[in-house]
Design brief:
By secondary structure, this protein is mainly alpha-helical. The chain has two helices and no strands. Helix 1 packs antiparallel against helix 2. This is Methyl-accepting chemotaxis protein. It comes from Sutcliffiella tianshenii.
């Protein structure tokens, strides 16, 4: 694989990792700061999105 392409993919994977951690931090913050059905739904949605990003990152690592 072209080194430039490999470098770009690695950069994308790193950025996805940052986004995933931020989504998980926000989800945890919502769980601790807010109470109610809406907060549970929002937190779960953010965790699901973080998992989707993790899956994308895993697929990119296979390239």
């Amino acid at each position: 694989m072209d080194p430039k392409v490999k470098s770009k993919i690695s950069s994308i994977i790193q950025e996805i990792s940052v986004i995933t951690r931020e989504l998980e931090d926000i989800s945890n913050g919502i769980n601790h700061e807010f109470k109610g059905i809406g907060s549970n739904y929002s937190s779960a949605s953010l965790r699901e999105t973080a998992q989707n990003y993790r899956n994308i990152s895993n697929e990119l690592r296979k390239i």
